[in-house]
Amino acid sequence: MLLDPADLQAIWLTVRLAAIVTVILLLVGTPVAWWLARTHSWAKGPLGAMVALPLVLPPSVLGFYLLLAMGPNGPLGWLTTKLGVGPLPFTFWGLVLASVFYSLPFMVQPLQNSFEAIGERPLQVAATLGASPLNAFFTVALPLAKPGFLTASIMTFAHTVGEFGVVLMIGGNIPGVTRVASVQIYDHVEALEYGQAHRLAAVMLIFSFLVLLGMYAWKPRPQKG
Amino acid sequence: MKTVVTFMLMAGLSLCLTISASAADLHLAVAANFTAPMEQLKPLFEKTTGHKLIISYGTVGKFYAQIKNGAPFELLISADDETPIRLEKDGLALPETRFTYAIGKLMLWSTKPGLVDAKGEVLKQAEFKRLAIASPKLAVYGAAGVEVMKKLGVYEQLQSKLVFGENISQTYQFVATANADLGFVALSQIYKNGRYAAGSHWQVPASLYPQIRQDAVLLTRGKDNPAGRALLTFLKAQETKKIIRSYGYDI
Fold first, then answer.
1. Which of A13, A29, A150, A184 might form a disulfide with A25, Cβ 3.0–4.6 angstroms?
2. Helix, strand, coil share (%) of chain B residues, nearest 5
3. How far is residue B221's CA from residue B70's CA, in Å, rounded to a whole number?
4. Chain A partners of B180 at a C-beta cutoff of 8 Å?
5. Is the predicted ipTM greater than 0.90, yes or no?
6. What Å distances lie between residue A37 and A116, A119, A166, CA to CA?
7. Is A89 on the interface with B (CB under 8 A)?
8. Where are the domains of chain A?
């Protein structure tokens, strides 16, 4: 066997985490991106900056704040305890929440770009033909922004797979719960198990390359609106 | 008058040159559990010798990988004795320089007063949610903690409650932020001059885990650096040992 069961478990956990985060961010990120693309409000700047923060913040900063905020003495921890869930650090859903913050710009920014590229015109035309704003969004904007959705989803998924620093800060390295592939590789390296580290690292490398290759090779022609 | 000034300038200049020639920079890798004492020792060493220490703190496994791959470390202050021995075998450390600078002690600690009792019964009752421990694969203090739980016959029962710190510092942080109810930490992290950090603790009896011998060794890269030998001598001095002991280590 190329990979031992612990490695396979880490890969499966990573894939599950990335998939769930991508779905959540599709639901959360789409309205945010739509609003950012359409609004003329003063709040556009501050909100856009907040969305982009995880791009520039070191993961250790994000992980540190999340650990304090989600801990029993933090505001998020207080909330989750009140809701009967308990504090989130060291849990799978804690990782999901952290990754949603961490990968937010990778979903919102490509979507925002593709929404902006559509421009006002197709939606105005839809409106004159009697489509409600919601109807126009689903029948006109969504199909036109399809390439943007694809790019955003792939980037979000891949970026979550590549997450390391935040997981290290709040994960607690629990097998099957928070020990994702990147942490597993780190463990192998630190324990001098270079053979296992190599094999798992190769899997990650090939995966990442194939994802990016797929994204760059598949260049949809911009659809005319 | 002019000659006197010139002479003084010359003298001053040559003095500066002598100092800069004998004072050296030393890059050293230090195990995470020794962070607090090292921070106290650093200015003392620098003041008495004129050398300068450039310190990296972290896990010994990572240091080993980095040293094997050409990291600029000249001296290793390890958390175990295995890694220095392994580096000797690899020809990356000088065997005759290795010595035990401290013997580490394991503590069970919680920030909650009254949670940890004086006999460690808390482990058997297991009325807590999460127990933090350093990764046993990577850190000697983690391996020691696992050994303790096995000896007490509670390891199987507690396994689902364990959260793993990447090193002993992160383990401490999990407990200190109350994200874990209690955890196995190094005595040096919660003890200074006879006082323990707030909360409750149990000093694990030495009979429950293998002795944690912490060795220091000069690396081949630091062979010709005068600061390397100077630091080894400094670590063996009685005054230094007194400071190391004040953090709860034996030596």
1. A29
2. 50, 25, 30
3. 9
4. 90, 172
5. no
6. 5, 9, 29
7. yes
8. 5-217
CATH architecture entry for A5-217: Orthogonal Bundle (1.10)
CATH code that applies to domain B24-103+212-246: 3.40.190.10
Chain B residues within an 8 Å CB radius of A80: none
Q: What is the pLDDT of residues A12-69, one digit of tens each?
A: 999 999 999 999 999 999 999 999 999 999 999 999 999 999 999 999 899 889 988 9
Domain B106-203: which CATH class? Answer: alpha beta
Contact A168 B59 (CB under 8 A): no
Encode pLDDT of A178-192 as tens digits: 999 999 998 888 777
In sequence order, the 6+-apart residues with CB closer than 8 A to the CB of B237 are: none
Size of interface A-B (CB pairs under 8 A): 56
Report the 10 Å Cβ neighbour count for A53: 13
- pLDDT at residue B209, rounded to an integer: 95
Number of CB atoms found within 10 A of residue B186's CB? 33
